[in-house]
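Moderator note: this is an archived Q&A kept for reference. The question asked for a predicted structure of one protein chain; the sequence and the answer are reproduced below.
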Amino acid sequence: MKPKLKMRLGDLLVQEHIISEAQLMQALSEQKNSGKKLGRTLIDLNCITEEQLLQFLSQQLNIPFLDISRRPIKPEVVNLLPEVQARRYRALVVEDNDDSVLVAMSDPADLQAMDNLEEQLMPKRLTIAVVTESQLLDAFDNLYRRTDEIAQIAGKLEEEYAADDQFDLASLTDADSDNETTVVKLLQSIFEDAVQMRASDIHIEPGEKVLRIRQRIDGQLQENTLPEANIASALVLRLKLMAGLDISEKRLPQDGRFHMEIKGHKIDVRMSTMPIYHGESVVMRLLDQSAGLLTLNETGMPADILARVRKQIKRPHGMLLVTGPTGSGKTTTLYGILSELNTADRKIITVEDPVEYQLPRINQVQVNHKIGLDFSNVLRTTLRQDPDIIMVGEMRDQETVEIGLRGALTGHFVLSTLHTNDAVTSALRLLDMGAASYLVASALRVIIAQRLVRRVCQNCTQEYQLTQQDKVWLNTVSQMDFSKANFKVGQGCQHCNGSGYRGRIGVFEILELDDEMIDAMRTGNPQDFARAAHQSPNFTPLAESALNYLVQGMTTIEEVAKLVEDVSDIPTPLSDEMFAQQGLEE
């Protein structure tokens, strides 16, 4: 049943003293010029808020006013109305009952839209609710994924190749062919879905009978499986063309990159191919250049660590290391430091593989191993270019380490990364790589270790009651007082794709070498160095920093447990076997 207003909207708002007669006249005059609806015009003129208007319409039309931001909505329900029509009519199907559907609209007085919706959703009866337009737009972006679209295009592509009975290389590289057009559409949908879901990586993995397309979102892989396994070679071929790779070479791995614009985002795609049993696997790292670089303030460093980092990077010489596994945010931290140091009176040179973001005023060198332009060779030349600051993408071998350390001793401030678990083992790793202990002791000044943990979705956060297993585990890993902790968990909503998490936050530890640590390093005694580091009053381990986030309700015990297990030998509290071994019962 269609709700109807008994009077015109403007007259009703004046009658109820929500707006004045003068405001109505102003809005009507503006409406003639803009062509917008009266309600939107009143909101734009700040005569009324969107929520006030919709609450009023809800009462007048006797229909519910919904907050759909925290409401779990099933994808199959949303897809009852195609995305194009949903956006056109500002309408979203939120419930599917036996004989009716509940549709949330931002303008429930739009009778023409309701006529079209009724026709589209027949034979279901239409029930209307009112919702803010901002919530609707967010819901469209979060709920209308390209999964079905990808499946349909993949099916069409398979049919086209089945008709040809074989893959035609010429047609695949011909921009005017139907096959090429379908491949491009499929890739476009894959990239649009990835950008919409804030994915950092896309994995294309051919199997014997299926093609897997996986996205890494907030560090976790999510999988979409397509039965059209035989289209994988067409996708890989097209991607190779885009990245300028050798399309005839399928036996060796290849690396390349290309740029594209998706939904207003300028995306730099780093692509890697690898031959596997059923074809070639492709992994693409997506770097959103339009998002801009994070500053040090935006990296999520706690205020005390941030102040200590800023103090350290003012040094005229010495070495600063940022450590952690792949995907822990090391590069983001280094670029944040470089952005802060990038002033007209400093010459900065970076040696990277690859150059991820282009920075003004900074001389960035792309390593190219094929022609002998590796880290050590570039680093030697860099020292002759009169730099004040040098950034080396990674300390990979003894030669690079020693050149970097000597550069730090000869008046340069050197920044670099290492793939190690924590700050203490990073200093020892330099010794393991063959660097002289006196060089490390003289040059190394500060180490930042970091991890990323998923942040609880703020849209669906709720209180979390610890289980007995959780309590036992927390008492095992820490002596902190958790009695006043604010434990949180996400129940899952449209904003977080039902995961309970949205975004990630950095967990940091900083180790500033003092005299005792330097003496232990100079004598090459790893036990004494580790003991001095852990006894330092300014040192807070990664695990403790993560527990502080847990206490504040920023992340969950599940995420902290993964981090603690990674940097120590303590198992997670989620293991029933571990719980049973301790002879405990809930």
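Archived answer notes: The chain has 24 helices and 18 strands.
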